[in-house]
Structure formats: structure tokens, C-alpha cells
Specification:
heterodimer; A: alpha/beta; 2 domains; 13-stranded mixed beta sheet; 23% helix; B: 273 residues; mainly beta; seven-stranded parallel beta sheet; 3 helices; 16 strands; globular
Chain lengths: 469, 273
């Protein structure tokens, strides 16, 4: 019998280490007004934020669960610990970070990446930022990269935070946006002044170490006119048997003629429910580029949204999803064309194996006021066995005649003809199949910074074996 | 209004897009049922011209080696609900040709490609304007091995017309060697028309090939320029482009009298016959 090509699961051993937590640092599980007051107290929230949290809790309690995506029955939010105190304050000197946390991030290669290729780094451990630093020359250019709580208490930025926080993703958006509004903690604030170009990226890394906990970080980025930023986000957690929850929120404001590239490698453990919300508002001739790799988590709902609100605004989304055993990853993107001459391009790949379920879900909306807009969507899915599943659920909602919209999708397995062609050029069957699968992921890996592309290849961890004939 | 939910999308998606179903008040609509049961190896064609309000439910059985073609033309001044269900045996073929010329229509076709090497082709055309509404839900369920489905939809939206096209190719586990493709080509001729295109591929089998494509927009500027250089006025170019979309569908009808009737309805008279 012919043996099928085997592609290994993502190798997670590098991420599956953990440190004991002091349970005295945990707030009670569940979502109640008392918990909200306690979080608010811990964080010394201004009054408006405390009220915002309580209002969000009300919305959370009356909003039904989504009824259209992967099953979330294994997630009991009332058993999730929403906040874990940090004993130490956030540091800007790596030597001051507590030893166990420092060791965690060193194992993940964060300090090395900071030294070699980043303009600034933020590191969140459970509920709080533990380290935030930005290069001197970057800070001198007026770029602000700090934790959101510090910015909220800084008179220079407090107004900016209040006028932008959860305005793009209001708590009414969906149940987990409301939950985020109620219990958010940690995350980054980035402000790039007019015409400032950051040639090297900033990076935030989110690590959830505690068992049965949730992480609810909020990332707020504001790019002024003509500026440029590449922001990288990484996330991981060790595996436990209890469900964990990630309900972060990312709000990106891209000013006139500004360009933001937002790259994410998501590698949560397979007990994680990743219910994250990301949204960008792009002004005239501005540009947002999303690069997204989804490898981890048990269940994911992830659809970064771009709202093209100014003439000539552009959005690009490049993504790859790898769903292995026990994973149901529902990923994709949403783009709203809300001004004339806007354009968007979406290119995604997904791989399903060993019973994994991968769903590509998208929405392209072209409103009446978006004459002259163009959009192109391309998605490809690769099924590596017949016990897995791969679905494609795109929607195009077009409300102007002056537009050009194209969509293409393909699904299938590794083509025998292509394998035959490569073998006729001297490759073995194993080499040919390995090359095809690696090539399938190439559109994403070439969009990533080199060290992340290498990381992605490590994650996929291809292991090919096959028989001839 | 009772608000019966029709045309349920097999895998629901974002609620705010309003494509998971179509709600209509069907109380008081007369229902008509039709059963088409071919004999093994038989070839037959049925043609329905639907021009009055009501519910049409067509159940089709296509046994081994049989080929059934169903042509439906919808020209209803009010509300119409249509459902076509077909079950296909080994090497059976079902061809569905539908043309929508106006009204408020909710139309669903669910095709069971159960038999080995059974095949389904759909050619759907629409020419909508004014306040016309059309919600289409085509589902090709591939359960048999080496089954084949091909869905082509083409149409024109003018005025305040609202159209939703949902096309699903569902490869069930065990449908090895199956192939399915779907394509929609939409010409928008008005800034107030609304087009929604929802092409789904659901896949629980690795040994399959599925694809879908959609193209939505205005008339290609190069085509307009070419025709203008040939002295054709702009209004005429739009009319030609619109009719060009339907020509392929009309060619599938295979009944001359019906094509003449459609051309008359479209105001083309004798010139296009």
C-alpha cells in the first residue's frame, strides 16, 4: 500500500515550559462587578476607565455567544482567572526583570532579537507588562512605545488614549470585545509622529504562563501623517489541560500617507481559546499590511479588519494557518472600502492535517461611497489527509458599480503531476513533496523578517517520508 | 409577517453581512409540487415558466445512467419561492438552467451527488433592475466518488436591485476523486444596486479538487473603448454588455420558443432571434 506523505505537527517543545505561580497573586475567577473593581483598583484606573469597564461588563452579560464559528463549549469563562498581579513593577532594564520571567523570555529568544534586530521590545507575562524598552535614538525621534497603563496616566497621552481606546472595536462589537473592555490589562501604546520612519521593527511578546487564566492585553498604535512602522507581535503559552483564554484587542490608526506593517506569529498552546479582535482605520493614501501566521491554540476566531476610510487607502493581508490534531482554527480577514479609489489584496494559505479543522472566512465590503475601488482575494487550502477538514467561507458585499472585485479560491491535495514533474528533474518523491509543501507556505515566510521566517519553518517542522511507486 | 427563514447558508458566517438566510413572509402563497422521476438510462427535459406568485417545489430523482435537464424561467411580478431537490444515482447527470427576470425571488437547489461519477451542472442567469430582489442558494453535496459539479452564474444588476448568490460545493468524506467548481460573473450597472456573492467550498476529503471564482464590477473600459471606436453609442454598449452576460445562459435553454419569449420579454423583439 502506498504510504502517504507525513507532515509533522508543529513542534511545540520549545514553548511548553512553565514556572510555578503564587496563587495568592490570582484574582478570583469569573466576571463580576467586584472583580472589575479589584482590577481597576490594582491598575489605578482613572474614573472614566472604571466606568468603561463596568459598562462593558453590562454589555458582556447581555450579549449572546457567537453562533456561527467553532464550538466554544469547552470554555467556561466563569472559571477563567482574568487578572494575575505582578509582584514587580515594569522595568526598562532587563537585569531588573525577575529571574523566572527573564529565563522564560530568554528561552523564547526575545532579548537576543532585541539586541540584533529591533528598535524596541515589550514583554508581557500573564496580565502585566514586565519589560518595555526602546532604543535611545528611536525615543529621541518622538516615537512613544510604552505600556498602555503608563500612557493613560501620562498627561501628554491621557487624552489621546481616552479618545481612541475601544473606539474602533467598541464593547458592543461582540461578546469577547465586551469581556475585553471589562477586564483588559497590559498591552502596548505606540505613537509615531508625523513623517517619522522607523526602519527597524518594534516587537511585543505575550506569554501566558498561569494555568486556567486569561490574557486580555490591549495594543493601541497611532501613526501620524506620512510615518512608517513595522510592529511584530508574538505569543505563546505552555500547555495545560484546563482551557485558557486569550481575548486581546488591537486598534491601529493609520494616518494620511502613513504605512503600518503588523506581523503576528501566533503560537498559543492547544488548550487556548484565541478569541482576539484586531482592527485598523486607514486614512487617505495610508496603508496597512497584515502578515499573520496562525499555528497554535485549540480554537481560534481571528479576522483582522481594515477599514479604508480615506481616498486611495490600501490594505494587504497575507496569512497562513496550520491546523493539526485537536485544533479548529477559524481565520481570515475583513476589509471595508469606505472611500473612493481604495484598494485591497488578500492572499491566504491553509493546511489541515491529523484531524485539524481550518476555515478561511472573509468579508469584502465595498460601500456606495467607494467608487473606483479594487479588491482581489486569493485563498488556497491544502488537505494532507481525509480525517481533516478545510472550509472556505468568503463573502463579497458590493454596493457601487464603479469597482473591480475579483476572488479566487482553490482546495485540494498535493498534485501528482507536480510531484512527477519535480521527480523528472532529479528529485526524489520525498524531496518533491517536501518542496511543494514548503513552497505552499512561501508567500507568508517571505513577508516575515528573516528570524521569524526561520521560526516559522521551525514551527512547521516538516518531516517527509514516502514510498516510491 | 411570519418571517419564514429560507435559503440557510450551510455554514453560517458573520451576522452583520445578512447572508445566513433570507427571511420572507410566505403566508398565503400558493404551493405547487412537482416530482420528476426519470427511469434508468432515460434522458428528459422539463421546462417551467413561472410568472405568478407562489411556492414551487420540484423533487427530482435521477437514477443510474439517466440525464435530466430542468429549465426554469422566473418572471414574477411579486414574490416567488422556489426549491429544487435532486438525488443522483451512479453515472446520472442533472443539468439545471435558471433565468431570473425580475420580482422578489428566493430560490434554493440542493443536489445530492450520491452515485459514483454522477454530475451536476448549473447555469444561472439574472437580469434585475428596479426594486427586484433575488436570493439564491445552490448546494452541491458530493457524497459519491468521482462526482462532478460545475456552477456558473452570470447576471446584470441595475436600479435598486438586491441580489445574493450563495453557492456551496460540499465534499463529504469518502467523495474521493470528486471535482467541483463555481464561478460568478456580475455586471453592475447602477450605484444603488447591491450584490452579495458567497461562494463556499466545504471539504472533508483530501482527494478532491475544488475551486471558485468571482468577478464583480462594471464593463471593462477596454471593451467600451473598442466598441466606441466601432461607432457604437455608450447606451447601446451597456445594453450589449448586459445581453452578452445572458447569451451563454440562453444558449443552454435548448428550446427555441422559450428563447424567443425571453428575448421579447427583454425588449429584444425579433432582432436577436
Amino acid at each position: 500500500m502506498k504510504e502517504k506523505t507525513q507532515v509533522a505537527d508543529v513542534d511545540r517543545s520549545r514553548y511548553d515550559f512553565r514556572y510555578a505561580e503564587n496563587e495568592g497573586d490570582f484574582l478570583d475567577s469569573g466576571i463580576t462587578p467586584d472583580i472589575i473593581f479589584e482590577i481597576s483598583e490594582e491598575k489605578n484606573d482613572p474614573d472614566w476607565m472604571r466606568e468603561f469597564r463596568l459598562k462593558s461588563l453590562e454589555i458582556y452579560n447581555r450579549t449572546p455567544m457567537v453562533n456561527w464559528g467553532p464550538d466554544t463549549e469547552g470554555l467556561d469563562v466563569d472559571r477563567i482567572v482574568t487578572y494575575i498581579r505582578q509582584k514587580n513593577r515594569m522595568n526598562t532594564d532587563w537585569n531588573d526583570v525577575p529571574e523566572d520571567i527573564k529565563e522564560t523570555f530568554e528561552k523564547l529568544g526575545i532579548p537576543q532579537a532585541e539586541r540584533e534586530s529591533l528598535a524596541g521590545v515589550g514583554a508581557q507575562y500573564d496580565s502585566e507588562l514586565v519589560y518595555h524598552n526602546v532604543r535611545k535614538e528611536v525615543a529621541e525621534s518622538g516615537v512613544v512605545y510604552t505600556d498602555l497603563e503608563s500612557a493613560m496616566h501620562d498627561p501628554k497621552y491621557a487624552g489621546l488614549i481616552k479618545s481612541h481606546f475601544m473606539k474602533l472595536v467598541p464593547p458592543t462589537d461582540h461578546k469577547f470585545a465586551a469581556l475585553h473592555g471589562a477586564v483588559w490589562s497590559g498591552g502596548s501604546f505606540v505613537y509615531v509622529p508625523k513623517n517619522v520612519h522607523l526602519d527597524i521593527p518594534l516587537q511585543s511578546y505575550f506569554r501566558l504562563n498561569a494555568k486556567g487564566a486569561g490574557q486580555f492585553e490591549h495594543t493601541l498604535i497611532i501613526l501620524e501623517e506620512g510615518s512608517y512602522l513595522h510592529f511584530i507581535e508574538g505569543c505563546s503559552a505552555p500547555k495545560y489541560f484546563e482551557a485558557a483564554l486569550h481575548a486581546g484587542c488591537v486598534e491601529l490608526y493609520v494616518g494620511k500617507g502613513a504605512k503600518l506593517r503588523y506581523s503576528t506569529i501566533e503560537n498559543w498552546s492547544k488548550n487556548m481559546y484565541n478569541l482576539n479582535t484586531k482592527r485598523a482605520l486607514v486614512q487617505e493614501n495610508g496603508q496597512i499590511e497584515w502578515v499573520s501566521g496562525s499555528f497554535g491554540s485549540h480554537v481560534s476566531y481571528l479576522y483582522p479588519m481594515s477599514i479604508l476610510n480615506g481616498r486611495g487607502a490600501r490594505a494587504e493581508f497575507t496569512g497562513i494557518t496550520f491546523a493539526g490534531e485537536g485544533q479548529n482554527l477559524d481565520t481570515g480577514a475583513k476589509i471595508v472600502h469606505n472611500a473612493p479609489d481604495t484598494s485591497s489584496y488578500m492572499s491566504t494559505k491553509s493546511i489541515s492535517k491529523s484531524g485539524g479543522v481550518s476555515t478561511f472566512r472573509s468579508a469584502v465590503v465595498v460601500n456606495e461611497n467607494a467608487a473606483g475601488s479594487k479588491s482581489s482575494v486569493n485563498c488556497e487550502s491544502l488537505m494532507l489527509d481525509s480525517i481533516s477538514r478545510s472550509d472556505t467561507v468568503p463573502v463579497m458585499d458590493i454596493r457601487t458599480e464603479k469597482c473591480d472585485i475579483g476572488h479566487e479560491a482553490k482546495i485540494g491535495r498535493i498534485s501528482d503531476e507536480t510531484v512527477f514533474y519535480l521527480m523528472s528533474r532529479g528529485l526524489s518523491e520525498e524531496q518533491a513533496r517536501a518542496m511543494i509543501v514548503r513552497g505552499f507556505a512561501d508567500n507568508v515566510s517571505k513577508e516575515l523578517p528573516l528570524e521569524y521566517a526561520v521560526e516559522m519553518n521551525n514551527l512547521i517542522g516538516l518531516e517527509m517520508q514516502g514510498s516510491i511507486g | 409577517m411570519s418571517g419564514t427563514k429560507l435559503n440557510i447558508l450551510p455554514v453560517p458566517t458573520f451576522r452583520w453581512l445578512g447572508v445566513n438566510g433570507a427571511e420572507r413572509d410566505t403566508d398565503g402563497l400558493a404551493a405547487k409540487e412537482l416530482a420528476i422521476a426519470a427511469k434508468p438510462g432515460e434522458k428528459r427535459t422539463s421546462l417551467l415558466w413561472i410568472d405568478s406568485e407562489g411556492i414551487t417545489d420540484v423533487k427530482i430523482t435521477v437514477p443510474e445512467g439517466a440525464a435530466v435537464k430542468l429549465v426554469e424561467v422566473f418572471d414574477v411580478p411579486g414574490q416567488a419561492v422556489s426549491k429544487v431537490t435532486a438525488e443522483l444515482g451512479d453515472s446520472a447527470a442533472f443539468e439545471l438552467v435558471q433565468l431570473y427576470l425580475g420580482g422578489d425571488t428566493v430560490s434554493e437547489a440542493v443536489i445530492g451527488l450520491n452515485g459514483r461519477r454522477s454530475s451536476f451542472t448549473a447555469d444561472i442567469g439574472y437580469m434585475l433592475g428596479g426594486q427586484d430582489k433575488l436570493d439564491l442558494n445552490l448546494i452541491a453535496n458530493h457524497t459519491g466518488r468521482k462526482t462532478l459539479s460545475q456552477i456558473n452564474a452570470k447576471g446584470v444588476l441595475d436600479g435598486d436591485a438586491v441580489k445574493t448568490f450563495k453557492g456551496t460545493i460540499d465534499f463529504k468524506n469518502g467523495a474521493s476523486g470528486a471535482k467541483g467548481s463555481e464561478k460568478e460573473d456580475v455586471l453592475l450597472m447602477s450605484g444603488s444596486a447591491v450584490n452579495k456573492t458567497v461562494p463556499l467550498i466545504l471539504c472533508a476529503e483530501d482527494d478532491v479538487e475544488g475551486s471558485h471564482g468571482a468577478s464583480i464590477g462594471r464593463i471593462d473600459e477596454r471593451e467600451v473603448f473598442y466598441m466606441q471606436t466601432r461607432g457604437i453609442p455608450e447606451e447601446k454598449i451597456c445594453e450589449l454588455a448586459a445581453l452578452g452576460k445572458l447569451r451563454q445562459i440562453l444558449s443552454k435553454i435548448g428550446d427555441e420558443d422559450t428563447v424567443i419569449r425571453i428575448n421579447k420579454r427583454l425588449g429584444r423583439g425579433e432582432e436577436d432571434e
